[in-house]
Amino acid sequence: MVVIFVVSVRKLMCEEMLIDSSNL
Fold it and tell me: Is the pTM of this model over 0.70?
């Protein structure tokens, strides 16, 4: 269960980074 949570969090962080880079 913890692994799933970590993976989901990492995916969210990656998505945020992609959005930030696209905004630039």
Answer: no
Q: Which stretches of 1-24 are assigned E, i.e. beta strand?
A: none
Rounded to the nearest angstrom, the gap between the alpha carbon of residue 10 and the centroid of all alpha carbons in its chain is: 4
Tokens, residue 3: 């692994």
Cα 10 from Cα 2, distance rounded (Å): 12
Q: Is the dihedral of CA 6, 12, 13, 18 positive or negative?
A: positive
* Full pLDDT tens readout for the chain, 24 residues: 799 999 999 999 988 887 777 766
Residue 13, token pair as written in the block: 């962080």
